[in-house]
Amino acid sequence: MTSLAPDGQPIVLLEDVTLRLASQAGQVNILRGIDLSVAEGETVGIVGPSGSGKSTMMMVIAGLERPTGGQVRVAGCRLDELDEDGLATFRRENVGIIFQSFHLIPTMTALENVAVPMELAGRRDAHVEARRLLGLVGLSDRALHYPGQLSGGEQQRVALARAFGGRPRLLLADEPTGNLDQANGQAVIDLLFDLHARAGTTLLLITHDPALAARCQRTVRVADGRVDAPSAGPGP
């Protein structure tokens, strides 16, 4: 049995979450009653076909998309009760996100990309911590390089360092190796699990790779906007 958050509640709890979006053809049901519970410190691989609702579910958990119905509770916060400023504060204090396409700021160095979110959060040690994190991902010698001067694998490692800069309780990774070759992808995933273990962060990992999902403690399949029964994995 996995442990729960200190208050006895799962760190992520979705109950009958729905999301309908308008289109030219009418209302489209993206999420059709999602139920999901994730314990503090757990690693969960999220799999399913393209268009099944995996990324949308992650956006809802991050507070970047508001559901049409149901309840979303993350890190003790009822996200449906927060305004936009409240959601921004929630993300800054609790969530790290890694996307497939890096999302680095091209006019900032690797060091600045990692440090600036911490500076905005009021961290006085932002640059010191950014250098430490870049060292953990093997990029100490690339700290002053701009994204355009880095390989895809290096850019994703910068994004990984940035995601851990806020000391998140919850890390959301959406196809983090999707734009990388096999060798770089493997290196990024090894770093991801290593940093997760160091920080004790809860990890939700969207992937099309069954072998990668199997490194997580549990695999959850999303199909047609619903969560299938979860299956256990061997863990990292």
Architecture, CATH level 2?
A: 3-Layer(aba) Sandwich
Indicate the low-confidence ranges by residue numbers. 1-6, 230-236
Principal-axis shape: globular
Sequence of secondary-structure elements: EEEHEEHEHHHEHEHEEE
Determine the strand fraction and express it as a percent band: 25-35%
Output mean pLDDT.
Answer: 89
Structural class by secondary-structure content? alpha/beta
The number of distinct β-strands equals: 11
Note the main sheet: 7 strands, mixed
Q: What's the CATH topology label? A: Rossmann fold
The total number of structural domains is 1
CATH evolutionary superfamily: P-loop containing nucleotide triphosphate hydrolases
Radius of gyration: 18 Å
Write the layout of secondary structure elements.
Layout lengths: L11 E12 L2 E13 L4 E5 L6 H8 L7 E6 L2 E2 L5 H11 E4 L11 H11 L5 H11 L15 H14 L4 E5 L7 H18 L2 E5 L3 H4 L4 E6 L2 E2 L3 E2 L4
Parallel strand pairs: 3-8, 3-9, 6-7, 7-8
Antiparallel strand pairs: 1-2, 1-4, 4-5, 9-10, 9-11
Helix pairs in contact: 3-4, 3-5, 4-5, 5-6
Textual characterization of the structure:
By secondary structure, this protein is an alpha/beta fold. The chain has one domain (12-232): 3-Layer(aba) Sandwich (Rossmann fold). Helix content is 33%, strand content 26%. The chain has helices at 54-61, 84-94, 110-120, 126-136, 152-165, 182-199, 210-213, and strands at 12-23, 26-38, 43-47, 69-74, 77-78, 95-98, 170-174, 202-206, 218-223, 226-227, 231-232. The strands form two sheets. Strands 3, 6, 7, 8, 9, 10 and 11 form a seven-stranded mixed sheet that branches. Residues 1-6 and 230-236 have low confidence and may be disordered.
